[in-house]
Amino acid sequence: MGARRASKDTDRRIGRRALIVGGAAAAAGSAVLARDELGRLWWRVPGVEKPRKEGEVDYAGARWVAASDANWRRADRPDDYGIDMVVVHVTQGSFDSAVKAFQDPAHKAASHYIVRKDGHIAQMIRELDVAYHAGNRDYNERSVGIEHAGFVDRPQDFTDEMYEASARLTARICARYDIPVDREHIIGHVEVPGTDHTDPGPHWDWDRYMRLVRAARTTPA
């Protein structure tokens, strides 16, 4: 009995110590979470905003065409939300129709970039802001969305110029945020959890695209 009681007392002391340590760790964790949340919200304080220049692009090969403010959320990425993913889309329409849709406040969706068949790239939302493109809040906050003009059932829409221009863009995004060039971090819209979209579809050549991204990733900007 005595030995058994001593064992219980020891367990009690260990348990109390673990509780104290665990409580301290939990408090520290809460402090970190609170600090992170404040970091995400700092720019909402009146008069505080990250410097921006009207018409400025994040990718030198793009032309600025602003999306409606209703189709994205102001942020301070990657300081408030880390960027670790690129999401590939297909517009299911022409380049011009996609631009028009993204400029429509009733559309409630837009990607950061649109790539045309001839390789022309329009940037419609700054990478530091959250675009409503993936249909999943977490994925929106952590990714950059790239639309490609065309239709998923028309492989001829995915031209050499489009693949090459898009691959260079994705390579620069990956370099900027240290995103691994692999299929876990460069995904299709269809792969976003909870989505009902099927793009970029079965005719998008992922093997070719990833080869081009890797090649562009090792080429100086």
Automatic annotation (TrEMBL):
Gene Ontology biological process: cell wall organization; peptidoglycan catabolic process; peptidoglycan turnover
Enzyme class, first EC level, given as a word: hydrolase
The keyword Cell wall biogenesis/degradation appears for this protein: yes
CDD domains, sorted: PGRP
This enzyme's EC code(s): 3.5.1.28
Domain N-acetylmuramoyl-L-alanine amidase: 72-201
Keyword annotations of the record: Cell wall biogenesis/degradation, Hydrolase
UniProt KW Hydrolase keyword: yes
Transmembrane domains' residue ranges: none
InterPro entries found in the cross-reference section: Amidase/PGRP_sf, Amidase_domain, NAMLAA_amidase_2
Domain of life: Bacteria
UniProt cross-references to SMART domains, sorted A to Z: Ami_2
Designated name of the protein: N-acetylmuramoyl-L-alanine amidase
Originating organism: Streptomyces chartreusis NRRL 3882
